[in-house]
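Same chain as my last thread, 181 residues:
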Amino acid sequence: MAPAQSPAAPAPPRRTALLLRLLVGAQVLYVLGVAGAGYATTALGKSVVLAAIPADLHTLADGDFVRLRYAVGAVPLARWRGPAAPQPRQSVYVLLAPAGGPAPAAVLGVFGQEPAAGPGQAVLRGWVTDVFARTVGLRFGLERYFVPAASPLRQDRAPRPLRVQVRIAPWGQARIEAVSE
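reply #2:
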């Protein structure tokens, strides 16, 4: 007959302390990595202007954010450059040609795989939301914008065309720098 096994002994205090330190260290590294990615996007990114309109100004009455609808968020299906038809929730890369100055960037193509950007071009990473007969709906993670208290967007209730200056990092991550009319 086999001897009865005793319940598992608790981990020694030294081992538990080491594990706790490793977990806290991993969390600190994660937060620093997220902050560092944001600063790297600003430092290394290419500045591009995108055309947008506020999707719903009524949300400003309830909070400090407004949803933006970008012109590059609805691309003609003819600009699709993937090997197969686009699918909802598919990651995509939009090749942009900045027009320079205040003019919005033009979409050169939407790709299923990351394209090589030429001189002066930028690649914006996003995903497919909808596929229609003639257009592809896209999102980029830039659709929510904090509106400062002194912004004219807070006073106006009619949606006006906006110019959104975006900084796009070489790896496709983007962040909003400024919004103007």
